[in-house]
Amino acid sequence: MTATKLKTVRVWDLPTRLFHWSLVLLLAFLWYSGGGDEALMAWHMRAGYLLLALLLFRIAWGFIGSPWSRFRNFVATPRTAIDYGLRFLRGQQPIHLTHNPLGGLMVLAMLALLLLQTLTGLFATDDISIHGPLNDHVTSATARMLTRIHNWNFDLLLILAALHILAVIAHRLRHEPLTLAMITGRKNVPDPNAPDHPYTPIWKAALVIAGTATLVWTLVTFA
Ligand code: HEM
Hints:
mainly alpha, single chain, two-stranded antiparallel sheet, 64% helix, binds protoporphyrin IX containing FE, Fumarate Reductase Cytochrome B subunit, 223 residues
């Protein structure tokens, strides 16, 4: 039997990897700090602003980032996603360089819920001493509703994160080590013709993150 020759290709650029692991750390901190005392809540809000800037960056990167980070290369129809899921259950799933069709929909869902989480946080209040920076712009009834969404949505986010981690483990059991690629940026694939696209230059990421950070800072400082 001849061993299959593996080709190493670039998949996740540095900005996408930094986004992912910062997201994991920030979410853990936001979980720990939410509902803490006033000093901890001040850090909870700062971490939320940082997360919002990173999310806006990732959305922009989904249009101008490296090929496998772009939405148009991994957002599939629900039918394709179901088909992939069925093939995965039979152990016949193809290897994807970007997110697989099911994973791509999960990524979209997580980004949408994370955006909802950070935006509702801007209006949230504990009705005593802690208020998001845009809380003054809505009525107290609206603020209470947005605060409830902020609380429930976090539980939903934790469920999606748990499913996401289970999916990564399931792929590992099928000998597809996805996590390594999210660390090194590279995948080893048994296809000598797999494309190895260059990454989008890092200065573009620096410009975009500077822009989204400035936008969020302006919003929370002057609104
Ligand atoms: C709070 C927990 C987590 C959240 C919210 C989260 C969220 C995400 C998101 C949004 C992406 C898409 C990245 C992008 O395209 O920019 C992603 C991808 C990925 N995540 Fe996570 N993640 C979490 C934890 C983890 C952990 C603990 C691992 C590994 C053990 C992991 C491994 C991966 C991998 C391997 C991918 C790429 C999947 C693929 O190849 O399609 N994630 N994650």
